[in-house]
Write a structure and sequence with these properties.
Layout lengths: L16 E11 L5 H12 L9 H27 L6 H20 L4 E10 L3 H10 L2 E8 L9 H12 L7 E3 L8 H18 L4 E7 L3 H5 L4 H16 L6 E6 L12 H7 L7 E5 L8 H17 L4 E4 L7 H26 L2 H16 L1
Helix pairs in contact: 1-2, 3-11, 6-8, 6-11, 9-10, 11-12
Length: about 375
Amino acid sequence: MPSFAGAEDFKHKQQARIGVMLVNLGTPDEASVKAVRRYLDEFLSDPRVVESPRLLWWLVMNLIILRFRPRKVAKAYATVWKSGGSPLLVHSKDQAAALQTELDNHFPDYFSVKLAMRYGNPAIQDVMEEFRQQHCRYLLVLPMFPQYSATTTASIFDEVSRILKSWRLLPQLRMPMHYHDNSSYIEALAMSIEASWQQNGRGQQLLMSFHGLPQRYHRAGDPYYCECMKTARLLADRLGLEDSAWQALFQSRFGREPWLQPYFDKTLVKLPASGVTSVDVVCPGFAADCLETLEEVAEQNRDLFLNAGGERYHYIPALNDQDGHVKMLAEMVHNETRNWMVELEKYNDTEQSAKRYQLAIKHGAES
């Protein structure tokens, strides 16, 4: 007989809340070979990430990749590791805390914001159990990937669905697929870039670098490439850039098969010869700075460009917990949950909540 997660003495009138789970890719627990190997094993074992025959891939992963790559990756992590953990973990925690504060300022007692990682810790399963214990009858899962891909957003949905199979009382569930063309997101990016230009000067070209993906995923219907290009076009339009003043590029390819192009590193080394010796670089596909942005983009690719004859290479940080980014996230949360807020007041049915119920209705009418 199946057993489903629930309370032994469930209190049906306990106050409910809306859970908001921010989910990013993941991180090793420390910058050690052992921790990196454990993380890579979980990450690379996901069939959403690597679509290859499983037996063949298992052999390649265990006999080659996990034997040699963890040492190299751990060394890279060590160059950017912070006292609170990896940059991705630190910045993501800051985002979650800032979002909780922003939501509490406008809608006190409605939301519980938590951070989860698809791979590593804090694990989605552990965070969802915290929500269940808090009696969150509503769950908004917010993948921190502006552009949808089956390798990221869909994998998060897979894991959430797997976990919910064991729950007795299912929450009402929503998961936005993307926000690549959200006007507030484009505005937050533009304001960050303009602030950098004002403080650090402006290069000849703005290079927008997105994480790569095998071309065959695109041919199979993954919309990631199209959404990256739309983000880039909207951002260039907002900044008033001529076509010659910006490029959308793709980084972090792995293996021998063709990935999305143009490749960032190969483009960089050709720019000085064409007369472009000063560039600004931004990564509009990353909600928070991480190994790929800080070690690969800001350090490795900077060296490539300067060694090829470039003179100025400036990396503009990810939005992280900037005010414009946090306000955009709060706006997304409110848009996705405004009807839940009204339902919540009816469910909680208290004198205090009745006042908030009227406030929620008024706010919804004004928005």
